[in-house]
Amino acid sequence: MTPEQKKSNVRLGLILASVALAILVGFVAKLLLLQR
Question: N or C: which end of the chain has fewer CB within 10 A?
């Protein structure tokens, strides 16, 4: 693996992680709002 590939893999991983986190936060917020 070249440094360029590693860099793009890290960027892709961060993007995927942030998307997953956003979905999780939205899901938790929805649960909390529906409980009231």
Answer: C
